[in-house]
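Notebook p. 47: complex prediction with 2-(butylsulfanyl)adenosine.
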Amino acid sequence: MPAEPGATDPASRAAELRDLIRHHNDRYFVDNQPEIPDADFDALMRELAAIEATHPDLIAEDSPTGTVGAAATFAPVTHELAMMSLDKAFDHDEFDHWHQRLMRALGEGRSADDFVCELKFDGLAISARYENRKLVQAATRGNGTVGEDVTANVLGIDDVPKTLPAGAPDVLEVRGEVYLEVSEFNRLNDSLRDAGLPLYANPRNTAAGSLRLKDPAASAARNLRWFSYQLGVVEGGPVLGRHSETFDYLDTLGFPVNDQVEVVHGPDAVKQYFDRAEARRHEFDYETDGAVAKVDSLALQRDLGVTSHHPRWAIAFKFAPEEKSTLLRDIHVSIGGKGKATPFAVLEPVFVGGSTVQMATLHNEDQVRLKDVRPGDIVTVRKAGDVIPEVVGPVLSERPANLEPWEFPSHCSCGLNEPLQRSDGDAAHYCLNGQCPLQRDGWIEHFAARAAMDIEGFGERTVRLFTANELLSDIAGIYELDFEQVRTIEGFGDISVRNLEASIETSKERGLGPLLIGLNIRHLGDTGAHVVARAFGHLDAILAADIDTLSKVDGVGPTIAASLHAFFADPANQSLIERLRVAGVSFEGPEVIDVAQTLEGCTVVVSGSLEGFSRDGAKDAIVRRGGKSPGSVSKKTLALVLGDSPGASKIAKAEELGIPVIDEAAFVSLLDTGEL
Ligand code: IVH
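Predicted complex, structure tokens below:
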């Protein structure tokens, strides 16, 4: 039950909240047995944060607001030597390009031939610092510069030496990976399953959660492990010449090193190591998501140096997405906010690519046909890291006899007997009934989502509850909610209602871009919505525009223009807009700024991530100056801008066509002046 705030003074309420939060934190993180829903827990946290914001004198040193699920001792630690990430290659070609860059950087007459090959562990990077042979601090990587102090819990990891033998350096930082063995992860989940409790998603997240437990004893009970693979700051140690010697040295000091480390000669041998590691990845009792090659010579490492993100002397080769087979139990269809009917696979849960998958989109009817997957089939499921899982196809040899192909349902499951209609444009089926309750719920949910109006606590469950209880029937209804009625719904205590009210109020100021996203206009994606918002500056200007004016906006083609126009011409939508206006929702966009058209008619391609621009931001900057920014290099390309981890094929193409390849600084000046 969420706690009801009494008519108490802020100081005693803050103390009460701190106790409650600590209690629920322990139930969640230590017992893995939460007593209240996440939303109620969040409500408690928000209430405490609100009191602390208005009464800073009431902030207790160990306030849980600064330590969600973590001990108050998880203080920030600034790494004396940054903990960098690794450059990545997804295939042999990308590795070859990296190797060529490496050779170019070394210059004529010098070459890096010996590489140390290691596995890339899928755990958590930790830096352990020893002073006078004693472990004094262990910190997470954090953002690379500042991590968190997790010493109390690292002290509970048996693999991590607590003291070093005589002769060890005065100061020594060892970097490595904390992980949970797969067998240990399975054991943990078996006991949770037996107790009827929710399971952990994957070993890495479980390891991360275990390292952040408040109670070091509970953390130690998780049997975390650690592999060391790199030195940080060293004062007073032996002078080593090779990275491979680091491993021997770590070993003599008592640090566990992985037994798959190999020194190989030449780029081909590196690629062979990568392939071997990939083929054997499931033989290990720990999860890996790739292999790493590091230049062995420390002198060459020093000369090669680092970029702002990663060292030039190392590369991570990422394994291909993992595939597993499982039973396709059924194919269901979900109805989205625009009435789009999307088929999705309901699978026998399967652990693949680091998490348990039980649903996967099948996109549309053509995809289901093309893949020829039928309920009852054994299908192959593919998943890589955080990427969306995908059904690859059926295992035909295992298909039961007489399995019928799946037919797209003829009608929407909304109960209004509405036929689903296939659109020619995008091969999708739509429910066109404006009264469809599934569509309505989907739209409201989309309107409240983060990219749109960002109304916290207004997810699928809340929307369903509100529409089923007839508190709400469309997006504008969110701003007309009767909160007294909301209070009568089970699970909505005073705090949740007050928080919901506050986040609805805040959402009114989101502005035109997010509002256009929330309106769920067909063909208008998130980027398009922001482009339109920027071009018009106010919703009324869009309402007044004809198709021609709309389609003149850069990035808005005739399809989007027609769709925008049709949306705002619909009287039902016009009345929604007026209700939003009356409710005080802001219709204003970002200021319309006139930018010099320095790139009029030019094409600039961006590859990799830039420091000062998001992916869309860089594109946007080009488009706003009159240029175009397609996804591939051609003869017409003025320049290729290279960021971090660029695509190898784009570089190769630019080199082949003699297109100038520029860095971020040159890009900024190109935007300004239009000249290279
Ligand atoms: S070396 C400067 N070696 O990968 C290089 N990292 O993207 C520092 N990782 O945060 C890292 N296995 O969590 C290195 N054998 C290995 C690794 C490894 C896994 C992780 C580590 C790091 C990330 C870098």
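Notes: The chain has six domains: 10-67, 87-318, 322-401, 437-507, 512-583, 603-673. Residues 603-673 form a domain with the Rossmann fold fold (CATH 3.40.50.10190).
Next step: compare against the earlier run before touching the bench.
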